[in-house]
Specification:
Layout lengths: L16 E6 L6 H10 L9 E6 L3 E2 L6 E12 L2 E13 L2 E2 L5 H13 L1
Parallel strand pairs: 1-2
Antiparallel strand pairs: 2-4, 3-4, 4-5, 5-6
Length: 114
């Protein structure tokens, strides 16, 4: 029996190109890098995930609420999705941790990876 070796191209990239933009006060450098690595579990190297987290600003409807803007631009396969929304984070000086940028991005990537 003649057995030949199969070689794999270890340089191949099968992951979405992921870019997370946020100030250090909103999302640490380590957290941004973590989510950019999670992008490697989504799609192929021709897909893109771009997410931006804005700084805190007072809500126009209720100045005692501080919000940040979440915007995303994704292309996975033939599906292109653009989203922009204001997320309330602090009300009367109290943080809503469920709406923190870290928690929100965790939910977003959980949905993408499943």
């Amino acid at each position: 029996m003649n057995v030949s070796k199969i070689s794999m191209n270890t340089g191949a990239s099968f992951k979405a190109q992921t870019k997370i933009s946020a100030s250090e006060t909103m999302l640490s450098k380590e957290d941004r890098e973590y989510f950019e690595k999670l992008g490697s579990k989504v799609g192929t190297d021709s897909d893109t995930i771009e997410i931006a987290i804005g700084d805190l600003t007072p809500s126009k409807m209720n100045p005692s609420v501080l919000i940040y803007n979440y915007s995303s631009n994704t292309k996975i396969g033939n599906a292109v999705t653009k989203k922009s929304m204001d997320i309330p984070f602090i009300k009367d000086g109290v943080k809503n941790e469920q709406n923190s940028p870290l928690s929100y991005l965790t939910k977003v990537f959980d949905r993408m990876i499943k």
